[in-house]
Amino acid sequence: LYHKTDKLEQTLLAAKDYESDAQKCSAYYHDSVFASMQEVRAIVDELETSTAKEFWPFPTYGDLLFSIL
């Protein structure tokens, strides 16, 4: 997870190279940032299912979908 989040951070920092061109920037986010986010999400989804609720510091999908603040 650490390596994937580090890669995502580097990918986000590299997005600054495309800020001047909206079309290239949006393509970069679609092709690179979204792909890195999916890699992180796959690991986090797996960790969520194997970690006891009392030790999981984030709301689960069920918490987000079925609770009203």
Poorly predicted runs of 5 or more residues: none
Mean pLDDT: 92
Report the order of strands and helices: HHH
Outline? elongated
Rounded Rg: 16 Å
Per DSSP E runs of 2 or more residues, the count of β-strands stands at 0
What distance separates the N and C termini?
30 Å
Query: Roughly how much helix do the residues carry, as a percent range?
Result: 55-70%
Describe the structure.
It is a single chain. By secondary structure, the protein is mainly α. It contains three helices and no strands. The chain has helices spanning 2-14, 22-50, 61-66. The model has no long low-confidence stretch (mean pLDDT 92).
SSE diagram, text form:
Elements: H1 2-14, H2 22-50, H3 61-66
Helix pairs in contact: 1-2
Overview features:
mainly alpha, 69 residues, single chain
Short description:
This protein has 69 residues and is mainly α. It has helices at 2-14, 22-50, 61-66.
